[in-house]
Amino acid sequence: MYMRGGLQKPCIENFSLSGLMSDKEVAEFLKVLPCKHVSNPPLRSIKYIDEAKLRNPKDRRRLPDQILGECEIDDEQAFADIRIYRQKKIGNDILYDFKFSILHEVGHVVFWFLHESSRKKWYSLYGQTPIIWNEAGRVPEEHFCDTYAYFIMTPILVEKRFELEYKYMLDEVFCRGRYD
């Protein structure tokens, strides 16, 4: 199946096992994004894995003990695959958290394939403003991915509390930006 401009949709698999969303509901949810953010290429697949993935106990960062998702990017082939893992309730709304995890991982794909000048602008912005989440503040790409997800899920929050990030997302990622 092809999207606008001849772009193919990514393969979406196994989400009914989550008990939260079906594959069709995930595909519908992703329609809020520009098609270039969720097209194949670069996004080849989004799969739900019905198992919890724990962090390496040697990882000394203060992170949740569970990995909620991963994005694997193949530089040579210019493809990305996303895996979302079984999640335990973190906040008050597990469906919100689940959708946030999906968007965060899509954010990795978007960041990776942004034009180099747009990534440089993000790096120059990094550290000038409050961080959205403690761990995200330590790694610019993670900060981007959280900002991307919050921009979709709660844009008013980003606009009011993180003005520079909001403007960046509008200019570089969602409207006037260059995305290769």
What would you say this structure looks like, in words?
The longest helix is centred in the middle third of the chain and has 20 residues, at 94-113. It is built from 6 helices and 6 strands. The two termini are 22 Å apart. Helix content is 39%, strand content 15%. Mean pLDDT is 81; it is low at 1-5 and 59-64. Helix 2 (94-113) crosses helix 4 (140-153), helix 4 (140-153) packs across helix 5 (155-161) and helix 5 crosses helix 6. The chain folds into 2 domains: 1-93, no CATH class; 114-180, no CATH class.
Mean pLDDT: 81
Gyration radius, rounded? 16 Å
- Outline, from the CA principal axes? globular
Structural class label: alpha/beta
What separation lies between the terminal Cα atoms? 22 Å
Number of helices: 6
Uncertain spans, ≥5 residues at pLDDT below 50? 1-5, 59-64
* Strand portion: 15-25%
Number of strands: 6
Short summary:
The protein has 180 residues and is α/β, with parallel strands linked by helices. The protein has helices at 23-30, 94-113, 116-125, 140-153, 155-161, 163-174, and strands at 11-13, 43-49, 53-54, 66-67, 69-74, 79-85.
Q: What labels would you give this structure?
A:
two-stranded antiparallel ribbon, alpha/beta, 180 residues, globular, 6 strands, 15% strand
Q: What are the SSEs and their pairings?
A:
Layout: E1 11-13, H1 23-30, E2 43-49, E3 53-54, E4 66-67, E5 69-74, E6 79-85, H2 94-113, H3 116-125, H4 140-153, H5 155-161, H6 163-174
Parallel strand pairs: 1-2, 2-6
Antiparallel strand pairs: 3-4, 5-6
Helix pairs in contact: 2-4, 3-6, 4-5, 5-6
